[in-house]
Amino acid sequence: MAVQSLLFSLAAATLASTAAAATSGEFSILAMNVAGLPSILNSNDVPGDKATNAGTIGTYFSEYDYDMIHVQEDFNYHAYLYATDDHPYRTATSGGAAIGSGLNSLSNFDWIDFSRTKWATCSDASGADCLTPKGFTFMRAIISDGVYIDFYNLHADAGTESGDETARAANLLQVAEYIDTWSTGNAVMVFGDTNSRYTRSLDNITVFEIENGLTDAFVQLEHSGVNPTVEVDCDNPSLVNNCETVDKVFYRGSKALTLDATYFNYESSKFLQANGSVLSDHNPITVNLTWSVGTTLRQSGFWGGPHGTWFNDLDSIPASPKASVLSFSGGSRLDAVGLTLADGTTFSHGGTGGTAVSLTLGSSEYWTEAELCQGKYSSETRNFYILATTSAGNTLSAGTSTSDCSTFTAPTGWQIVGFMGQDGDEMDQLAFIYAPQ
Ligand SMILES: *[C@@H]1O[C@H](CO)[C@@H](O)[C@H](O)[C@H]1NC(C)=O
Ligand SMILES: *[C@@H]1O[C@H](CO)[C@@H](O)[C@H](O)[C@H]1NC(C)=O
Ligand SMILES: *[C@@H]1O[C@H](CO)[C@@H](O)[C@H](O)[C@H]1NC(C)=O
Hints:
Layout: E1 3-5, H1 10-14, E2 24-33, H2 50-64, E3 68-72, H3 78-84, E4 89-90, E5 104-107, E6 111-118, E7 135-144, E8 147-154, H4 162-182, E9 188-193, H5 207-212, E10 215-216, H6 217-222, E11 247-252, E12 257-266, E13 285-293, E14 298-299, E15 303-304, E16 309-312, E17 323-330, E18 334-341, E19 346-350, E20 355-360, E21 367-377, E22 380-390, E23 395-399, E24 405-409, E25 414-423, E26 427-436
Parallel strand pairs: 2-3, 8-9
Antiparallel strand pairs: 1-2, 2-13, 3-5, 4-5, 6-7, 7-8, 9-11, 10-11, 12-13, 14-26, 15-26, 16-25, 17-18, 17-20, 18-19, 21-22, 21-24, 22-23, 25-26
The structure holds 2-acetamido-2-deoxy-beta-D-glucopyranose (3 copies).
One 2-acetamido-2-deoxy-beta-D-glucopyranose binds next to β2.
């Protein structure tokens, strides 16, 4: 399980009934291609019965208890894998080979906003990558109260013919562009089977570093921070960590969350059959990461549903922010939220409908609390209502209250200075950004 050190602020500790949220912790991840293509199609050079082997892998998942596991090629032996694994949160399979993507996540963390995306490009130049709809998955995992990381699992096109490399570069770019749209401002982890190596320059595996600002945990911890220029392949099982596999782990923090990889290891020696044979043709990779919430910016939990387009004010907040004007619009539901900071920075999200209302705050008055109420519209969940309360007890509301509400309160001595979430004509999903007063 994730170790979460509870750092109580003096103020919170004196309020016996207020449980302080964890502000730092550590977790582990595992990336593993489980070689689950039907054995008549591909033995994956793994001896033994694939169903038995899948059950053994699941037993190890339970025993070693990694906090977030991404599997690839989890096709036709999926039920055996899940039968012996005991992680509390797991994705439902998208199907066997030819139907599903083989991508699943097994986690100690719950998540929101899970989605599966197919590759726009595939190549049968070598192998049969177009046989099954491979691609990537996205989920926003809840590491702790107000602590989220966007996790991406992927399985890119295989092979080294030029058609393969073109397809693979397109796959990796598709994930990078998705991150730019759907994870703006957020902490991100991308791990799985990239089928790429740094020496396969046409693949553009550096796209995650260049376009998304992600760090490769292998390069950081086992390669002195320098991308490999010579291909050093791994044995299986690998007894050393300084060789490179096509399975990779990338990550970044955010302005509200520091993330740092502290440990990298090929776990192959811990994933063997009773007689010592391997369970997969890939070396599984574990990475440990430490996290801590920001000292100048943090965030609340989310309310509403995963519809509309992602937005995030986090990267646009100036130093020493303070809300001076709140402006909302609502009617039957919540149409829009906005605020103007003391330095003139303006944020505005949602549509143009509804009745506009606003509240101007005094020079020593802070926006400290917000209640959101959600409901269903056209069978999709969105925010129907907001009630803002300031440190002086003034309030501003918009929309129509429902029976499904949540109150977000800035930590003691902090205030609300911005928003993140998903919007369209209305406020589909919303969270608040906190800064010290
Ligand atoms: C990795 O993190 C897990 C979960 O916090 C912990 O149990 C384990 O001891 C860590 N391993 C190392 C080598 O730091
Ligand atoms: C281990 O057992 C499997 C399944 O019975 C078998 O196929 C494989 O050859 C064995 N490996 C060794 C090293 O004996
Ligand atoms: C490689 O990545 C860079 C940086 O994002 C991008 O500009 C370039 O178009 C990519 N090349 C290919 C072939 O995808």
